[in-house]
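Please complete every field before forwarding. Incomplete forms are returned to the sender.

SECTION A: IDENTIFIERS
Entry label: holo-298
Bound molecule: adenosine-5'-triphosphate
Molecule representation: SMILES string

SECTION B: INPUTS
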Amino acid sequence: MSLEIVGVSKTYGNGVKALKNLTLSIGNNMFGLLGPNGAGKSSLMRTIATLQDPDSGSVTLDGIDVVKQKNEVRRILGYLPQEFGVYPRMSALDMLHHLAVLKGITAAGERREMVDALLHQTNLWDAGKKSLSTYSGGMKQRFGIAQALLANPRLIIVDEPTAGLDPAERNRFLNLLASIGRDVTVILSTHIVEDVRELCPRMAIIAAGEVLLEGSPSETLRALEGQIWSRIVPSDAELKELEATMHVISTHLVSGQHEVRVFSAASPGSGFEPVPSHLEDVYFLNLSEHGRRIPAAA
Ligand SMILES: Nc1ncnc2c1ncn2[C@@H]1O[C@H](COP(=O)(O)OP(=O)(O)OP(=O)(O)O)[C@@H](O)[C@H]1O
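SECTION C: PREDICTED COMPLEX
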């Protein structure tokens, strides 16, 4: 599978430039698209899913033009939107049959086999006859994956799927995505750095409609090795001083005190310990560099 996004731009009616000449190449496996709220992730996902057209640029999926050949693309693509929203009083079993018919799977035997297999795969078999409106957040997301997998897509797109899930449900959901990612290309759009670190051999960071970085999480982490330093800072005043004089990547509260992470080629000062780099460092560093380069984007 190969998805080629070339020079895609989109400006909404209200003047917001959501995508700015964005170019990205996505191959097999699980691809993480990481970016803060408003980065343009959903705009890009909707464009790939044929739900909105770009103003300019091209998107091709295995050579098929996503803008001009929407029906062909829809046949090989599954999509779990950010707000899936449709949880009627229908059971998961009935809903999947209904959606399968809409996808053109009209032979009853084939459809039953497919729906049953999907309910097993997403661990919803036991709850398959229960009304979707009674499902928990995690079950709803797993149902969202089941419907995205109908008719054996080559590519599935999942937009911010773990937001709002508790840790156990999130874990279960990520495991499901990982197992799917072995056979089908998955684009995982998220603002949660951990999701990408745990799942994706390749990723891109986007902000303000632009690609800031494209690569593998482990390579980007290696590039920062030895340059991340950490220290506990007891007072707000001291923290302000550090922020003014050093390249502070992030601050976290640990038992009510600030733990500061600093980017520096050599030790930034007394009390700092070298620490392993995290993907979150890569993410924040890219976002802060971007903010500096284009102040208007902040
Ligand atoms: N239909 C629309 N009309 C006008 N502006 C829009 C529309 N959809 C998105 N936007 C704006 O475009 C920008 C990008 O939004 P988008 O939803 O693509 O980002 P995102 O990265 O998915 O963020 P989030 O995680 O908040 O959904 C934002 O400034 C958003 O307010």
